[in-house]
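Worked example 3. Consider a protein that binds S-adenosylmethionine.
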Amino acid sequence: MTPLLRKWVFETLYKNRYLYRFASTVPFAGQWRVWQRLVLSRLTGHGALELGCRLGDLRADMIAAGYACRAVEHSSQMVAAARDTLQRRKLGEKNWILQGSAQHLPFSDASFDTVVSTFPSEYIYDPNTIAEVERVLRPGGRLIVIEGGNLLPVGFLQPVLVLLQMFVYGPSAVFGPREHRNLNEEVARNQQQERLEDNRLYTNRDTSRGTTTDVLTDAWFGQHIPLEQFGLRRRSERVRSRRWEVYIIIGEKAKEQNSA
Ligand SMILES: C[S@@+](CC[C@H](N)C(=O)[O-])C[C@H]1O[C@@H](n2cnc3c(N)ncnc32)[C@H](O)[C@@H]1O
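Given these inputs, the predicted complex is written out as structure tokens:
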């Protein structure tokens, strides 16, 4: 699919909340919401801001988990949809979802412990966004970005969905830098909980709850998010289950130095 056609398809899908829900559920075998919720165990402090919340499901999850969570969303239709989600789930204040832009956040400095962005569009690569995120984060706070997720071709349905995603997004989005690698091998390795791969160094391997989290020191994903330019310390995590893998980038703001 050409980039222009893809843009048109997505813009059409994104204008309608029902189409968007369909598009983020069926082609991803219902895993999109599972991937969004990987944010929850990574939140720090109490106050959170979500960028580009679209239907507002994750924001509602964060409020339900006890966080004070605001959101900034660009599309007025989606602000309305996210407010409806809150009302339906009886969670939070409507006016905590603002229409606006991630590049101009209407909050004072050091307002949040965490800023969250799941499956972001181009705004996350804009230095103006990261400058704003750094400004509104408290010292010791963090930006959590779920940059993407891929199904693995296991079982009967997922190979078909992987093919569909390759058609829509192109092979590089599905394989990353591994264009020429055999995905079946990847799946086999995944099932065996493989050892070191491609000379990549993994640390902090956590294998809880049926997933494996690897902290990658030279991750291929998230590289275009300009964290270092604004002094945020990068941490790249790849989370895998037997059915999928998800790419998470965390940008940590330094704690304040004691002035003594
Ligand atoms: C691909 S959707 C992802 C939505 C949601 N986070 C999710 O996980 O399903 C990207 C969202 O970012 C919003 N968006 C795009 N540009 C933005 C900007 N500059 N500031 C804030 N939100 C933006 C879009 O309207 C859309 O709701």
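Take a moment to read the result before moving on. Confidence is low (pLDDT under 50) at residues 193-200. The beta strands are 47-51, 68-73, 97-99, 112-118, 137-151, 202-206, 212-216, 233-240, 244-252.
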